[in-house]
């Protein structure tokens, strides 16, 4: 547990009930500045419900959710309700819910490696571009806390790594706390400081490495999930920068060798562990 003085948000024994059903129960977690907490778990295990309690969108039916006064939150929801048949440029989208200047929009897009998309049409964006625009919208107002509900939806494996690297960079440069949800255990766990594994309640928690070895976690997802993490940790000695370049462990940059960085992906695609069907 982090120093309670610095916690941006804290859930204490928090749960939500709808009618006779508990959606999730007894969740304890906290997020401090500069910390990445990742929620994992099978479909319907209560991850989004937990994130919504942290955000204040849902009020706990038991326990409590405490946020520091004046907390600024950036949120990337799992689902976006947009009529994709209507024309909507990226900069208009960014300004729909925020009073942002064009300069602020451009800055946020540049921070997520999407500066060239300012005038693009939302409906024409690729999956990876859409997620970068969503992240730009979430960070545009310098939030203290970023809540990301499946930030790599619709993104291919190499793109996923780039987005998780980007999220780590946002944490370092902006110093915000991050509460993230993902099914994609292999990469996300390696990028997180703490992982909380849900299954209607907290099934297990700890560092990514601790969780991957936890008997409860392995019972839920199988030992294969832990093996995938080991593969990722072993190979991941480089960082994908938002501009498409790759920074190696020795600090050198390269822009023309993308194929060399994912031999573990191309050789062993079956090691990519998607938990969306688990449980
Ligand atoms: N408003 C609601 N009313 C009733 N049940 C709900 C409501 N919202 C969520 N649920 C149920 O609560 C459970 C937890 O849902 P939640 O969306 O938190 O899970 P999740 O872990 O985020 O799932 P997924 O991985 O599929 O996104 C599910 O069984 C879901 O059907």
Automatic annotation (TrEMBL):
Alphabetical UniProt keywords: ATP-binding, Cell membrane, Ion transport, Membrane, Nucleotide-binding, Translocase, Transport, Zinc, Zinc transport
Single Gene Ontology MF annotation: ATP binding
Residues annotated as domain ABC transporter: 9-224
Protein origin, superkingdom: Bacteria
SUPFAM superfamilies associated with the record: P-loop containing nucleoside triphosphate hydrolases
UniProt entry tagged with the keyword Coiled coil: no
InterPro entries with a match to the protein in the record: AAA+_ATPase (IPR003593), ABC_transporter-like_ATP-bd (IPR003439), ABC_transporter-like_CS (IPR017871), Metal_Ion_Import_ABC (IPR050153), P-loop_NTPase (IPR027417)
Entry's family note: Belongs to the ABC transporter superfamily.
Name this polypeptide is given: Metal ABC transporter ATP-binding protein
Species for this entry: Roseibium salinum
């Amino acid at each position: 547990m982090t120093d309670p003085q610095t916690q941006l948000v804290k859930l204490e024994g928090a749960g939500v009930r709808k009618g006779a059903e508990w959606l999730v129960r007894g969740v304890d977690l906290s997020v401090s500045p500069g910390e990445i907490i990742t929620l994992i778990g099978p479909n319907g295990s209560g991850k989004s419900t937990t994130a919504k309690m942290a955000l204040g969108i849902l009020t706990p039916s038991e326990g409590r959710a405490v946020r520091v006064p004046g907390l600024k939150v950036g949120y990337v929801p799992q689902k976006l309700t947009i009529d994709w048949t209507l024309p909507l440029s990226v900069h208009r989208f960014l300004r729909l819910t925020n009073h942002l200047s064009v300069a602020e929009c451009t800055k946020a897009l540049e921070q997520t490696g999407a500066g060239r998309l300012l005038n693009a049409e939302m409906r024409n964006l690729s999956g990876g571009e859409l997620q970068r625009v969503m992240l730009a919208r979430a960070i545009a107002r310098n939030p203290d806390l970023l809540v990301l509900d499946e930030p790599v939806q619709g993104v291919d494996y190499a793109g996923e790594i780039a987005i998780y690297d980007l999220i780590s960079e946002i944490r370092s440069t902006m110093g915000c706390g991050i509460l993230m949800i993902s099914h994609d255990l292999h990469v996300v766990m390696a990028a997180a400081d703490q992982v909380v594994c849900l299954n209607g309640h907290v099934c297990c928690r700890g560092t990514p490495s601790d969780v991957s070895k936890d008997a409860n976690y392995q019972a839920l997802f199988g030992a294969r999930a832990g093996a995938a993490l080991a593969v990722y940790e072993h190979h991941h000695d480089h960082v994908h920068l938002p501009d498409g370049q790759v920074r190696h462990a020795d600090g050198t940059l390269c822009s023309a060798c993308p194929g060399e960085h994912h031999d573990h992906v191309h050789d062993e695609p079956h090691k990519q562990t998607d938990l969306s069907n688990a449980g």
